[in-house]
């Protein structure tokens, strides 16, 4: 559930029920997580009103972490953890995953420390960019750096996204957050839509949604018009931006707007229709699925045979 849904649900319980729920939840939280998330401290000193939680006390030296991270990123991009060199000893090259994960775990809390949150956030973005690059290019002895560290790309993106939101002014975090989706490689276990949904979940006001749509359109306008033969990177970037805009319109409840957006920007309208109808199917939006199919067909788009078959089945089910 989203946090707003949780709050609404909690409002329905009385004090005795809330005490019982909290006690049961506490018993189910692993001890390690209790310590990492400072749950005991939260129970003893609950945050009231809209005040922010005090920044956690760091047991590491930020300067040392920053220097070590900079060196790690520099060495990784130079393939020092992959090829023979005099900077990283042969026995230490396979250990990059342990170093990378430790640095990630140290950088995340530093992004919440007002003494060093800005440089920590910038380095966390660089760290994430490195791991995305390593998902498409050989920088380590694996094509799946996130999995090698025991992390998922989505959870790492969410941490970076949270840091950007905390430490950038107003709506300025939206453009870099979107760029970290459409300008980076994804690993085999991740789809760009996972990160898109994480970003859209944090666009909790109409102003933020509008700003995100404007940022998306601005990036699309930088791209050349679709051509039969064009670079794969340009084509993929256009398609991902078009999908992001489509998701935004769907989040705002404007399905026709979602179709108009992806139809105009995706490139091939038949594939754009398939993408939108596939998402509507996943969301169990049967009526909207039929309406968009009929609208697209009336506009001259030729749906693929599988969609025509699905449409006939849907009409037969409704007795039309």
Descriptive overview:
It contains 17 helices and no strands. With 320 residues, it is mostly helical. It folds into three domains: 14-49, no CATH class; 60-202; 203-320, no CATH class. The model is unreliable at 48-52 (pLDDT under 50).
Short description:
With 320 residues, the protein is mostly helical.
| Number of separate strands | 0
Note poorly predicted spans: 48-52
- The span between the termini is 37 Å
Number of helices: 17
Q: How much β-strand is present in the residues?
A: under 5%
Query: What is the helix fraction of residues, given as a range?
Result: 55-70%
Q: Which class do the helix and strand fractions yield?
A: mainly alpha
Mean pLDDT: 90
Instruction: Please state the overall shape, judged from the principal axes of the Cα atoms.
Output: globular
Q: Major beta sheet, specifics?
A: none
Radius of gyration, CA atoms, in whole angstroms: 23 Å
How many structural domains? 3
State the order of secondary-structure elements, H for helix, E for strand.
Answer: HHHHHHHHHHHHHHHHH
Key structural traits:
320 residues; globular; mainly alpha; 65% helix; 17 helices; 3 domains
Layout of strands and helices, then pairs:
Blueprint: H1 3-10, H2 15-28, H3 31-36, H4 39-44, H5 62-77, H6 96-110, H7 117-134, H8 145-148, H9 153-167, H10 174-182, H11 192-201, H12 206-221, H13 232-251, H14 255-265, H15 269-282, H16 286-298, H17 305-318
């Amino acid at each position: 559930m989203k946090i707003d849904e949780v709050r609404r649900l909690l409002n329905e319980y009385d004090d005795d029920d809330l005490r019982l729920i909290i006690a049961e939840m506490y018993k189910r939280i692993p001890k390690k997580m209790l310590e990492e998330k400072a749950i005991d401290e939260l129970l003893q000193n609950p945050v009231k009103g809209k005040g922010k939680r005090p920044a956690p006390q760091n047991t590491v030296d930020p300067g040392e972490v920053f220097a070590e991270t900079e060196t790690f990123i520099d060495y990784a991009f130079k393939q020092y953890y992959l090829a023979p060199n005099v900077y990283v000893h042969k026995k230490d090259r396979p250990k990059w995953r342990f170093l990378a994960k430790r640095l990630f775990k140290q950088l995340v809390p530093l992004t919440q420390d007002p003494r060093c949150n800005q440089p920590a956030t910038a380095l966390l973005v660089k760290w994430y960019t490195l791991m995305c690059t390593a998902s498409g290019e050989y920088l380590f002895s694996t094509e799946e750096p996130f999995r090698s560290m025991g992390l998922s790309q989505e959870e790492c993106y969410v941490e970076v996204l949270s840091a950007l939101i905390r430490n950038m002014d107003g709506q300025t975090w939206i453009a870099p957050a979107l760029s970290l989706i459409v300008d980076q490689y994804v690993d085999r276990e991740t789809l760009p839509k996972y990160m898109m949904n994480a970003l859209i979940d944090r666009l909790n006001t109409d102003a933020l949604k509008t700003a995100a749509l404007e940022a998306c359109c601005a990036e699309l306008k930088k791209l050349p018009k679709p051509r039969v033969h064009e670079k794969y990177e340009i084509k993929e970037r256009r398609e991902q931006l078009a999908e992001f805009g489509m998701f935004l319109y769907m989040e705002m409840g404007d399905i026709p707007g979602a179709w108009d957006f992806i139809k105009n920007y995706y490139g091939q309208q038949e594939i754009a229709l398939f993408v939108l109808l596939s998402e509507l199917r996943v969301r169990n939006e049967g009526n909207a699925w039929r309406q968009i199919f009929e609208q697209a067909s009336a506009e001259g788009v030729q749906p693929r045979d599988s969609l025509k078959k699905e449409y006939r089945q849907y009409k037969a089910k409704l007795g039309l």
